[in-house]
Design a protein that fits this description.
Blueprint: H1 8-21, H2 38-49, H3 56-62, H4 68-74, H5 80-87, H6 92-121, H7 126-151, H8 160-167
Helix pairs in contact: 2-3, 2-7, 3-6, 4-5, 6-7
């Protein structure tokens, strides 16, 4: 990102933190860290266990969305304090699509867990449950890939039509 890509009111704070994050696992281009995506990787791994262990849905129900700063406050990430401080300085051209993507991801996971629990309680066909788990996992991975791209410098969130396509079959 060049200096001219950042609105003047965001530029000084961004530049200060871009220098501070140099040599860390926080992107100097966006001031975001991929470590945040571990919060979502964990729930996707749990969801993927449901077809073989339906009781795992109880563990999935315990998962709750965490904001970027909440994740780092609770993490053992080496530069967690720097990640928290840098978040307020993430240029809006990245922060908006990043937060939009995360909102879709949280909604997908929470609604997916509810649907899977309903199907398990209703005694639905295990094959159908397995297909729904796969669809939720694929959609979550696509949204995590989008968030990862934003962390690495893309300023594009998924279009609603793309998100609707991901949700097809869930």
């Amino acid at each position: 990102m060049t200096e001219t890509d950042i609105p003047p009111e965001e530029r000084a704070a961004f530049e200060e933190f871009a220098a501070k994050v140099d040599g860390t696992n926080i992107s100097a281009q966006t001031l975001l860290a991929t470590d945040y995506l571990n919060h979502f990787n964990e729930i996707v791994m749990l969801l993927d266990m449901i077809p073989d262990m339906p009781d795992m849905v109880e563990e999935c129900k315990l998962w709750q969305p965490k904001s970027y700063t909440e994740h780092f406050a609770d993490s053992s990430f080496k530069d967690k304090q720097l990640a928290i401080e840098a978040y307020d300085r993430v240029p809006s051209k990245y922060r908006r699509p990043f937060e939009e993507t995360l909102n879709h991801l949280n909604t997908l996971i929470l609604s997916g867990v509810v649907k899977l629990e309903e199907e398990i309680v209703a005694g639905s066909d295990p094959g159908l449950i397995s297909e729904h788990v796969k669809a939720i996992s694929r959609a979550a991975q696509a949204l995590m890939d989008c968030a990862n791209a934003i962390i690495h410098g893309s300023d594009r969130a998924m279009a609603q039509v793309e998100i609707d396509g991901l949700m097809n079959g869930i």
